[in-house]
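Quick log. Single chain, no ligands specified.
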Amino acid sequence: MNNVQTAINAIRNTDRNELNQIIEAVKLQQNFLARQSARSFMKGDAVQFTGRGNRTVVGTVIKVNPKTILVDSPSQGRWKVTASMLTSLEA
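-> predicted structure:
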């Protein structure tokens, strides 16, 4: 049995207080990962991501927020994107 399945089984056997502690731990980990992703980008970086309608958007980072990145695409406008959705185009 893998770790995810073990965790799911453990969650099913928790009471309300323990479940709230698990939820808080998950939220903290999500925030940590989002901030970690955002720190890997700098203003001026060339990036791409998949936007609405499955279209690829290519642009430049114009602002780095703690968990999101503001990207300017010359043809498709400005986008506020979660850092984990971005791919750097610079080698």
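The chain has a mean pLDDT of 91.
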